[in-house]
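call fold(seq) -> C-alpha cells
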Amino acid sequence: MISTLERKLIRDMGGMKGQVLMVSLVMACGMAMMIVTQSIILSLESTRDGYYQQFRMPDVFGSVRSAPLSLRHRLGSIPGVATVELRVVEEALLDMEGVHEPVKAHLVSLPDDGRQNLNQVFLRRGRLPLLSAQREAVVSEAFATAHGLRIGDRLTAILNGHRDHLEICGIGLSPEFVFEAAPGQTLPDNRHYGVFWMRYQSLAVAFDLDGAFNNVCMDLAPGTDAEGVIGEVDRVLALFGAPGAYALKDHPSSKRLGDELRIVGALALAYPAVFLCVAAFMVNSVISRLVRLQREQIAQMKALGYTSGQVGRHYLNYALVIVVLGCTVGVFAGWRLGEVMLRVYAHLFHFPELPFVMDRVALVMGVVVSVLAAVLGVAGAVWQAVKLSPAEAMRPEPPTDFKPSLLERLGVTRGMSLVVRMALRNIERRPWQAGFTVVGLALATGLLVLPGALADSVDELLTYQWNDHFRQSVIVSFRDPASRGTRHDLEHLPGVGLVEPVRGFLARVSSGHHTRRLYILGFAQGSKLINPRDMEGRPIVLPTEGVVVSQKLGEVLGVKIGDRVQVRALEGRCETRELAVRGFMSDFYGMAVYMDIDAVRLHLRESETMTSAFLRVDENRWDDFMSEVKKQPKIEFASAKKDQLAAFRASTGQSIGMLREVFLWLAVIVAFGVVYNSARIALSERGRDLATLRVVGLTKREIAGVLLGELTLLVVVALPVGLIFGSGLAMYVLKMVSNETVRLPQVVHPSTYAHAVLVVLGAAGASFTMVSLMLNKLDLVGVLKARD
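ret:
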C-alpha cells in the first residue's frame, strides 16, 4: 500500500524528471568510474596471482654465460630454495615472409623429461615439442596472432649463425611473458619479437651448450627472504660470468604489470571523488529549491499531523531516490565499460583468460559514498524543512531585499543594461546558490581539462622521446661485442648516412640501500643521434668521467649532482667502480644511465668495441637496407624507430587513449548536467518574477535575457576557476601515473583549455536553448496567482 507521502514523492519526481535524470547521471558517472578502476585492478591482480600460482611463476631469476648442469644440486641446497630449473635461453633471427625488418625469436628450453616444474606453458592449441623432433617449437600466442601462424608452419631461422628452420607444433603462453617485450625494451612489438619454447637437447646442441645452462629460475619456500637467496646464487655463479640474479618484483614482465596497476590506482581515487562532489552540489540545489517552493505544503503536512521527523525523511527520500537511480545506472555502466576496457588490457597483457571481476567492495563503497554525498548535499535543505513551524510555513517566503546591489552602490554597473544589473542583483541576493553553481561548473570544466592533458602529455612524450632525444632511424644490436671494423661494414650498407657506435652493458647501480639493475649506454661526445637534455631543455654535454642519469633514477637512488654511485658491471670481470653523477637528463620512458664510450671501454677493460650502433638511413632505401641487414651474421637484431612508435601507440598509447575517451564523455555529461540543473532551478524559482516582467511589457527575448544573463555571468566566473582546478588535477594525475617504466610530461597545451571552454559553452548553449523553450510555455495567469 503506497502512503500519501510516497504518492507525493512520485508525483514530484515526475514533475522534475529532467533534473533528477541529470543529477542521477552525474552520480552514475562517479559510481561507474569507481567500479571500472577498482574492478580492473581486481581483475588484473586476481588473474595474475592465479596464473602465477597455477603455472608456477618462479620467485628468483638469474642468468650466466655458461655453467655445467652439475650445479643443480648446489643451487638447490641453498636454504629456502624449493625448486630449481636450469634452462638454455638464447636469441635467434627469423626471416619472416612479408616482413622487411629482421624478426627476433627468444628461445627458451623445456625439460627433456617432460616435467615443467616452473614457468609451465599453457597450450592454447597444439602440443609440446617431442623429444625426438629436433626443430619443433611452441610459439607465443601474441606472435602467432600477429603473423597468422598455424600448427605445422615452418619458419626460417638463424640459430647460432647457421640457417635452419623451426616447425610450429603448438601455440601457447607462459607466466614469464605476460608482458611480452624484447630484453632491454619497454614496449611490446609482437611483429618483430616472439617467444619460442623448444626441448633442452635441441636448443643446447644448436648453441653449443650441451650439458650446460645459461639461465636459472627458482621457487622459494614460503617466508624465505629472496634477497638472501639472490646473494647466494650470485656467489655460486660468480665464476661462470653471471650478471646477477633478481627477484620476481624486478622481472620486466611483472614490473610492467605492476606499473600499470599503479596508474589505474591513481585514477581510482581522484576522478570518482570529483564526480560525487558535483553530484552533492546538484542534489543540494535541487532539494533546496524544492523545499523553498513547497513551504505551504510543508505547513499543511505538519498541520495534518505529520511530525518533523516524517517530513524530514520525506525530503531525504528525494535524495535517496536519486542515489538509487544513479547507483543502478552506474553499476550497469561500470560493468559494461569495465569489460570494454579490460579487452584493451588483454592485448597488452597475455593471460589464458582475463575475465572481468566486479569488485564488490568497491561497489559497496561506491553506494556508501554516494549516499553520504547525497545526504550531505541535502542535509541543509532537510533541516530547513524540519525546523519550519506550521504557522511560519503557511506564510509566503519573506520577500527578497530589493535594495541596489553592492556593485551598483560602488558605481561599477553604471552604463550597464537593465538586464545585467538585474542579474547581478539576483546573484548577490543568493550568494550560496550562485557559489554552488560556480563550483559545479568549475569542477565540470576541470574534468574536461584532464582528458586533453593526457593527450597532450602523450604527444609531448612521442615528440621528445622519439624525435628530439633519439634521432636515429634504426638501432642494430650485435650478439657479441663487435670490433672497430664492424662500423666500416655498417657504413657501406645501402642508404646508411651516419653510424654512431654504442657500447652498452648491464649493470647494478647503487647508492646506499637503493639499487637498480639497468642497461648503461656509452656513446661518443658530440653525438648527433642521441641528444639528451636537462630538465630545462638545455643540451647535456657528455662528461669524459662520471655518469649522466635520468631524473627519475636520481629520485629513486636519492642522489644529486656531485654525489657518487656504485656501478657494478654484470659482464666481463664484474668490477665495481664509484662514479660521480654529472647531470640529470629529462626522459620519459624507462630509466637510463649515459657514459662516454671511452669511459665505458676503460671500465670494462676493452679496446674499441661496440654492442650496438645508431644509424641514420635514407627512407627511400629502407627495404634494400633491411634486406642486407638480414644477411649480416654479426647483427642479432635491428630495431626501427617507427616500429617502436607503432608499438607504443598499440600498447601504452592505446590504454591511455581509451581512458581519455571515457573521461571526455563523462566530463561532457557533467558539464551539461550542471548547467541544465542550474537553469531549471532558476526558472522554477523566478517564474513569478519573469511572468510579471512579461505582463508589464518585456518581450520573450528580454525576459530570457534576465534569466540566462545571470547564468551566463556565473559561467564566465566559473570558467577561469575551472581551468585552474583542471590544470592542478591534471598535474596531480600525471604525477601519480608516472613510474619507472613511463613518465608522462606535465604539459597542458592552450588548445586543451580552449576545448574545455568550448565544451562548457556548448553545454550551456544547449541548456539555455531548452530553458528558453520552456519560457515560451509560461502560464502567465497561473504563475501570477497569489500563493497564499
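The CA atoms of residues 482 and 543 lie 24 Å apart.
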